[in-house]
Amino acid sequence: MNFGVDIPFVHHLGFTLERFEGGHSTIAFTPRPEHMNSFGVTHGGACMTLLDVAMAVAARSVVPESGIVTIEMKTSFMRPACGALLAHGVLKHRTATMAFVEATILDADLQPCAHATGTFKYVKRLPTGPRSVNPLNAISTD
């Protein structure tokens, strides 16, 4: 399954989309050595990116033609993220322009290791790229 849009950073990290429907998402992530922190567990920044993407994908699953941008995000780390990870995102509420979402990362033992809530804005997809190609200097939407 693909993400429905090209997100180079997501490809770089190696995220795999497993669920994208009805306000729900599941994303698998097998961290590599370059994703670890000095304690030998998945770096918090990689976990936050996984949570952010899981929430955005859950929100976009009900309006797949739309773009979505993160407005705010709160993350709580509960235990080290070890081994292969799964992130589950759930759209809790939406309006015409906003989405309120949460996501949880489960570690290789299926124990929750991080949780986030976020507010996202649905946006119209606009062309992106260098200023000369993109006179509106539009922002990327994923």
3D structure, described in words:
By secondary structure, this protein is of the alpha+beta class. The protein contains 2 helices and 6 strands; from the N terminus they run αββαββββ. The protein has helices at residues 8-13, 44-60, and strands at 16-21, 24-29, 67-77, 85-94, 98-106, 112-123. Strands 1-2-4-5-6-3 form a 6-stranded antiparallel β-sheet, with helices on one face. β1 (16-21) and β2 form a beta hairpin. The longest helix has 17 residues, at 44-60.
Write a concise keyword list for the protein shown above.
142 residues; disordered C terminus; alpha+beta; 2 helices
In short:
The chain is of the alpha+beta class and 142 residues long. It has helices at 8-13, 44-60; strands at residues 16-21, 24-29, 67-77, 85-94, 98-106, 112-123. It is built from two helices and six strands.
